[in-house]
Structures are given as C-alpha cells and as structure tokens.
Amino acid sequence: GIQVEQSPPDLILQEGANSTLRCNFSDSVNNLQWFHQNPWGQLINLFYIPSGTKQNGRLSATTVATERYSLLYISSSQTTDSGVYFCAASNSNSGYALNFGKGTSLLVTP
Amino acid sequence: EAGVAQSPRYKIIEKRQSVAFWCNPISGHATLYWYQQILGQGPKLLIQFQNNGVVDDSQLPKDRFSAERLKGVDSTLKIQPAKLEDSAVYLCASSLGYAGIPFFGPGTRLTVL
To answer: Distance from the CA of B80 to the CA of which of A19, A71, B26, B89 falls in 20 to 30 A?
Structure first.
C-alpha cells in the first residue's frame, strides 16, 4: 500500500503563531485527506485534497500530486488547534482504503 | 444529523477473553470501516464494507478477529481470543461512497490485561 510520512512528529507553538505540516506519500494518489484528532480522540476530516489548494478559515492545504507531497498550513494558531493532525492517502491499487501517517502532534500554548 | 455511534466506549478484559464492539453508521452511508489505532500511531484499516459485502479485509487478523454488517447497516467487530497487543482504540467510520470522506465515531478503548 501507499506509504505516508508526516513531519514534524511533534510541534509546540505559542498562540498566534503560524505552522506548516508536511505529508509525503510514496505513490500517485486519487484520494488525499487531512484529519484532526482532538485530545479526546475524536477524528474529524479537515480537507479532501488529492490535488490543488483549499482554504477553510485559518486552515489551508496544498497538494502537489506530481511531487507526492501535501502541506497543511495553520495560521494564527489557537489552543483549540491542539491535537494530532493526520494525513491519509489512497489510490486504486490500495483498493481505495486510506493509509494514515503517524501524525503530527501539535500543542498550542496560551 | 446523528453521527456514527459506537459502544461500549471503554472495555477492559483479560487476555484470552472475547470481546465485541458495536457500530451504528450515519443513516444512508453505504460504506463502513473498522480501524485499529494503537497509541502513538495512525489508524490502521481492519475491514471495509460496502453495504453488507466485504471490500477489503487484508489487514484483519482473521484467526482471532471477525466482523459482520447485518442488513448493510449496523456492524459488530469481535476479537476471540484477545491478546495483549490488541490493546488499542477501535474506530468505526462510515461514508456515502466507496472512496468518500469518512465520518468517525468516538471509538472504543480496549485494554487487554
């Protein structure tokens, strides 16, 4: 299946700071998603972005499919942004099953 | 719209015992997934159903894990017998279609002693 690598593994920010999370994947994809898992374990989809750029409030994501990476930007971070951010990818070879990376653990301090 | 429901939320058992988890997906979602998330790792797909048929169970340890989706709606995941390494959060998710955006339930945290 597709290998998904995320960096950095851990990140600590002060409230108001900006950050960029990276996701590299090993094969072409037709499905690339970003998720946020809050400290209570709830996993929420942030973006479906197999290519191109999308924005949702303070979050935006860009996927460069030809170079096999995706970036998640968090601007003006808030304490509620804390949690783990996962990138997940799939293609027809993997039966469309999403393969998740190990995640980036983000802590935003007041 | 109600989300994905799972029960129980927590379960503690001893090794070699059996355990079952239940999932009720979002109404109308044809695709249902069970994921295993070990502490510090990303979720790993165990099994994917499309309606009541299995699409992918390549990572399901079939000697001890089984799953079914009755009438294409609710699903149960069973472990028999449990091992220490089965300690994890078991996440159920559902989506409208085969490669759609999954909506996750709150998970069941299993501890095997």
So the answer is: B26
Nearest chain B Cα to A85, which residue?
B42
Contact A95 B56 (CB under 8 A): yes
pLDDT, one tens digit per residue, over B75-84 is: 999 999 999 9
B45 and A43 in contact by Cβ < 8 A? no
Cα distances (Å, whole numbers) of residue B109 to A68, B92, B105: 34, 12, 12
Taking an 8 Å Cβ-Cβ cutoff, which residues of chain A contact chain B?
4, 30-31, 33, 40-45, 48, 86, 88, 90, 95-103
- For residues A53-62, average pLDDT: 98
- Is the sign of the CA dihedral A40, A42, A48, A51 positive or negative? positive
Residue A55 CB coordination number (10 Å) = 12
Tell me how crowded residue A105 is: count the other CB atoms within 10 A of its CB.
16
* Whether A36 contacts A43, CB under 8 Å: yes
CA distance A5 to chain B (A): 11
* A46 contacts A34 by C-beta, under 8 angstroms: yes
Residue A42: list chain B partners with CB under 8 A.
104, 106
